Amino acid sequence: LRRPIFSRTYTDMSNSEILAYNTLVSAIQMNIFTTSMEGKTSGRQDSLLNVRQSKHARVALNNVRLACCGGREVQPTLTGKNFELTIKMMRENHHADEINVLRVENFLRRMTSEQLQLSSCMTCGMHLQTLFLLPCSCLVCTECIYAECVKLDAYKCPVCNKSFDIDDFQTLQPGLDYNWKWNIEIDNKNRESVALLRENQQEILRLDRERNPRDGPFEQNINPDDLNRHQDGLVGISTSRNRRRYRQTAHTCIFPDTYIDGKCLVCREVHDECKFDSENLLCEVCHCQAENCPKEESKSYYITNKLLQLWESHYNTRRPLKAIVFSQFREILNVVGDRLIRRFGRGRVAEYWGSNRNKELSSFSKLDDCFCMLLGQEGSHGLNLSFVTHIFFLDEIFDKSLESQVVARAYRMGAIGHVKVEQLVAKNSIEENMIEMNKRDGNSSETLYAKGTVVNESKQLKEAPESVLNNTESLQKSIDKTGTEKQANIAFLLSSLNLVRDIPRVDILTKAKTKKKKCSKVRKRVQFQLDE
Predict the structure, then answer these.
(1) Which DSSP symbol is given to 39?
(2) Rounded to a whole number, what is the largest CA-CA distance in the chain?
(3) If exposure means fewest CB atoms within 10 Å of the residue's CB, which of 244, 400, 403, 480 is most exposed?
(4) Which residue, among 111, 109, 120, 140, has the nearest Cα to 30 in the 3D structure?
(5) Cα dihedral sign for 430, 434, 439, 444?
(6) Residue 215 has pLDDT above 70, yes or no
(7) What are the backbone dihedrals phi and psi of residue 256, each rounded to the nearest 5 degrees, phi first?
(8) pLDDT confidence tier of residue 513, bands split at 50, 70 and 90
(9) What is the model's pTM?
(10) Residue 204 CB neighbours (<10 A)
């Protein structure tokens, strides 16, 4: 068999993805920094680096990885009780004046606003959603205060150089909760409002034509007899948004002449057989139009354009295009899959999960028009996909054995040619740290494919020693060792996180000084003209 061809592609995160990434990284850094302080009471038991908090550490790590693959907005929330308590502490405990109290109030409102308002660090000028609130009412990012404390070996504000108490600093930080605002939900709400507007416009046109018979009757391709014939069955038909592709509904779907929402007038379900390409961008049945992926979703944008190029190059060839898009997270597959379906149509993209996954797999393997399949962890074992030509990994795989299993779906007996495996990596993110960690441990993807350790399942079972398969004690020890190493790797990744700075700190300070010089020159020029 020909070995798989591995390649790695680095993508630039968009501004919205960088903002969501920095918000989550700041939250993790706040937890690690505040719990590492030793005051009257210790907070190490609440640290994400503590073994007892391994569950929360995994959740935090997964959230940061989601931000690298399409998560564009994270919403911090603060209860009214915590808001009032923070303001009360600033006034009573730290004796802040009204100007500083107003600054803190505005910061808390901007941080929890749904309109995505940012605050700037008073040291480096970086714009973030969350910042450290110091007892002197200064707002500083996590990296600036950490660098200042390490440099001076004391807890002082890097802005006003005032020292602060550790316990006061810890209790002053507001308790925040972080919630995802997914792009699919936001876009669906916008599409529903647009569809309602279109429906109202169609109703206005219909009424206008009825009032003005000289313009001619309102013509539709919908047969009234079909509507009357299916009127009795409308009560038992569900109006939910479930996929209609494999429903046993005995009726013929009827769609309007112009696109409203892509739903059948009888069963009110979305048309699931749209097929788009570079030439035909409009469905002939429901009149749905293909949508291009926005550049704000960097990996979805790259995958969409890459598949479009491959589809055009593999059209009418001996080996048709069959691509697998894999991710460990269902949220990422939902985001990327929604963009692929809206660009290529539901008839060209299969989804291997749920109760219809076997029929989705059959469409992907037998139909040439269905050239892409979204695959998760549940499909990484037991499938025979020797006809697959390309495999795309949306995120860096933490466990390389899982990556080997996914590649083994296509790299097996019956494969005609090479299988091209492409790994997508977000620049300046935690995914680069994961690559370096795997290289350090000797589990990198380059080593995996160079040594030929990616083999099919039958060869793995033949080469497995009987002592490991039969001895349960040694197997349990290996599992415990793997769990301990995984916790250590998670702690290493969380402690090595850094904020993504699109503009270096020196450039920000230089631009600020240049702006001040220009303002001073303008003032001098205006004053000179007034004197004259």
Answers:
(1) S
(2) 98
(3) 480
(4) 140
(5) negative
(6) no
(7) -70, 170
(8) very low
(9) 0.77
(10) 10
pLDDT-derived band at 524, boundaries 50, 70, 90: very low
Higher pLDDT, 445 or 464: 445
CB 64 within 8 A of CB 329: no
How many of the other CB atoms lie within 10 Å of CB of 218? 12
311 near 321, Cβ under 8 Å? yes
pLDDT value of position 238? 31
Distance CA 223, CA 213 (A): 21
C-beta of residue 431 within 8 angstroms of C-beta of residue 65: yes
10 Å Cβ neighbour count for 477?
Answer: 11
Contact residues for 490 (Cβ-Cβ < 8 A; gap 6+):
54, 57, 58, 61
Alpha helices in 374-504 (DSSP H): 400-407, 430-440, 445-450, 457-463, 466-470, 472-495
- Model confidence at 190, in pLDDT bands (50, 70, 90)? low
Packing angle between helix 54-67 and helix 472-495, nearest 10 degrees?
60
**Average pLDDT of the residues of the chain:** 77
